[in-house]
Amino acid sequence: MTQEERLQMEERIVEVLKTVYDPEIPVDVYNLGLIYSIDLHDDCSLDVDMTMTAPNCPAADFIMEDVRIKLQGIEGIGEVKVHLVFEPEWDKDMMSEEAKLELGWL
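Predicted structure:
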């Protein structure tokens, strides 16, 4: 994969992540700051570390599966592994300015 292809693939990954929403919050997981890392490997497999707004989030399984399914739907992406992590602990300062504005926190 060339550097340009990698950049295009990474941009597509972010676009797709912006289509996944926590059902209780009207902001996507990417802008909420729930995505901690995206590791696109040379074989086009993908590892994603993400968290939830609360450790006991009732929608965690649904959100993680939505992330995995949507990322696997990207042309050229191989295996996708989504890892739930809680370090560092999420807080509202991790949200994008867009998300804070949407939620009225600015």
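Summary: The chain has a mean pLDDT of 94.
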